[in-house]
Amino acid sequence: MAAACGRVLLWGARPARPGRWFSSSTCRMSSDGETTKFQPPPKPVIIDKQRQREERRFLSPEFIPPRGRTDPLKFYMERRDMIQRRKVFSIPEFYVGSILAVTTADPYADGKTNRFVGICIQRGGRGLGATFVLRNVIEDQGVEICYELYSPRIQEITVLKLEKRLDDNLMYLRDALPEYSTFDMNMKPVPHLDHEEIPVNKVGV
């Protein structure tokens, strides 16, 4: 057995005294009497939530240049203005299908502001011309408002429910039942963690 598992090395042939014994054996006995090689334990799996948050970075679609020939100077100037606007105004991450609340400046409204809640049914445009459309049914009447994303009249954009739909365009909600486009104007935000995946609403209309 000693030959199978290796040799035992003794430090010198001196009389026995307290000391250490070293073995070059890398074999162990299994339950059936056969020798097996030593296997190190598995390494622990460390989940870095900060890295997951960085990997799921969102690129707003208006920053993606259109296909075909583009004017590099125009693209550069618009991109610079868009970044400057985002430094003073927070534009959250949202998708078609998300429920938003938009507060805009309105000199004719009480408090000089107007707040509208609705589902985003379309996003369009590029650069500073980016737009999004919100839809809601108020008093049995469908109401849609098209906002310019970088308009200085917009004071706040709040995501009440962050989610996606299977379609990139929900204009067909105009012909659907009102219940698919009806949302409470006093709806409270639904919490969502940054590292969580964006939920997909697969409701059929």
TrEMBL record:
<feature type="region of interest" description="Disordered">
    <location>
        <begin position="24"/>
        <end position="43"/>
    </location>
</feature>
<comment type="similarity">
    <text>Belongs to the bacterial ribosomal protein bL19 family.</text>
</comment>
<dbReference type="InterPro" id="IPR001857">
    <property type="entry name" value="Ribosomal_bL19"/>
</dbReference>
<keyword id="KW-0809">Transit peptide</keyword>
<keyword id="KW-0496">Mitochondrion</keyword>
<dbReference type="GO" id="GO:0005762">
    <property type="term" value="C:mitochondrial large ribosomal subunit"/>
</dbReference>
<protein>
    <recommendedName>
        <fullName>Large ribosomal subunit protein bL19m</fullName>
    </recommendedName>
</protein>
<dbReference type="Pfam" id="PF01245">
    <property type="entry name" value="Ribosomal_L19"/>
</dbReference>
<dbReference type="InterPro" id="IPR038657">
    <property type="entry name" value="Ribosomal_bL19_sf"/>
</dbReference>
<keyword id="KW-0689">Ribosomal protein</keyword>
<keyword id="KW-0687">Ribonucleoprotein</keyword>
<dbReference type="InterPro" id="IPR008991">
    <property type="entry name" value="Translation_prot_SH3-like_sf"/>
</dbReference>
<feature type="compositionally biased region" description="Polar residues">
    <location>
        <begin position="24"/>
        <end position="38"/>
    </location>
</feature>
<dbReference type="GO" id="GO:0003735">
    <property type="term" value="F:structural constituent of ribosome"/>
</dbReference>
<dbReference type="GO" id="GO:0006412">
    <property type="term" value="P:translation"/>
</dbReference>
